[in-house]
């Protein structure tokens, strides 16, 4: 992607945690190092939760996540267990264990679907997918999952701060997916598979028309229409390109192309 997806995440996450009253004042000083295993030791819920919170505050996120999981395991019916589930998901997220963060957040939602902290859990799932978006040369299944999760946040909680951030990230995700379609389409076009290329370029216009790739997609549709022997369609795409992106290099190229190969043809 053209931007670092972590730029806007931390402030929103921290604000969400504060709003959800997850970061309580209960805090105990941590003991020992940061890499020891979590052995089963029966502890009262407040002490165990405070130890997990202390580890998180000190940056020992994996141990913190394990301790938050232990809160739920030892005290499954306590109100602290509900807090610990979401704090576990957050700790895994900060530790960049995104798959575990997704599982923990989804577990919280399966048990507490109507909880006041559900918007944050949905948002955390979306962010965990978003952080795993790969370069356009690779498979984009995770990107599609990120898109679906971000759409879900916006659909369920449109007035929330999470939805506002989700909409910004959706723009980047859509641009990324459009870029993948363009890369595949150009590959098909170069290898002479013109119809397959045109379908990819058309998909950009149908699904991602507000992205930065739309002008080039319209130009490529002009090219492929001429190659397929339908100059009327080429003129139509060039006209749409000129109406929406008149100052771009892609319109200039399309104008010259139409002048050379389809002069006098009108759009169907």
Total strands: the figure is: 0
Instruction: Characterize the overall form.
Output: elongated
Whole-number mean pLDDT: 85
Number of separate helices: 12
Question: Which stretches are poorly predicted, pLDDT < 50 over at least 5 residues?
Answer: 1-11, 14-37
Please write the string of helix (H) and strand (E) elements. Answer: HHHHHHHHHHHH
Cα gyration radius (Å): 25 Å
Share of residues in strands: under 5%
CATH superfamily of the largest domain: Tetratricopeptide repeat domain
What's the CATH class label of the largest domain?
Mainly Alpha
Q: Main beta sheet, described?
A: none
Task: Quote the distance from N terminus to C terminus.
Answer: 37 Å
What fraction, in percent, of the residue positions are helical?
55-70%
The assigned CATH architecture of the largest domain is Alpha Horseshoe
Q: CATH topology of the largest domain, anyone? A: Serine Threonine Protein Phosphatase 5, Tetratricopeptide repeat
Q: What class, by secondary structure content?
A: mainly alpha
């Amino acid at each position: 992607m053209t931007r670092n997806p972590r730029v806007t995440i931390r402030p929103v996450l921290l604000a969400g945690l504060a709003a959800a009253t997850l970061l309580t004042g209960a805090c105990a000083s941590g003991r020992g190092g940061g890499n020891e295993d979590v052995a089963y030791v029966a502890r009262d819920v407040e002490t165990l939760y405070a130890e997990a919170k202390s580890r998180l505050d000190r940056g020992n996120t994996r141990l913190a996540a394990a301790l938050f999981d232990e809160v739920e395991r030892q005290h499954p019916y306590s109100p602290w267990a509900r807090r610990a589930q979401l704090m576990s998901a957050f700790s895994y997220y900060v530790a960049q264990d995104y798959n575990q963060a997704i599982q923990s957040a989804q577990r919280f939602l399966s048990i507490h679907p109507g909880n006041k902290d559900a918007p944050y859990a949905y948002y955390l799932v979306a962010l965990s997918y978003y952080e795993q978006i790969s370069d356009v040369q690779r498979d984009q299944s995770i990107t599609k999952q990120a898109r679906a999760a971000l759409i879900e946040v916006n659909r369920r909680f449109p007035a929330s701060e999470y939805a506002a951030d989700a909409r910004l990230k959706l723009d980047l995700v859509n641009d990324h997916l459009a870029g993948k379609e363009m890369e595949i389409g150009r590959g098909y076009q170069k290898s002479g598979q013109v119809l397959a290329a045109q379908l990819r370029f058309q998909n950009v216009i149908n699904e991602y028309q507000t992205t930065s790739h739309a002008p080039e997609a319209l130009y490529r549709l002009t090219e492929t229409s001429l190659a397929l022997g339908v100059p009327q369609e080429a003129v139509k795409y060039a006209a749409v390109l000129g109406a929406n992106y008149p100052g771009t290099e892609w319109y200039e190229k399309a104008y010259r192309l139409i002048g050379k190969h389809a002069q006098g043809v009108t759009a169907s």
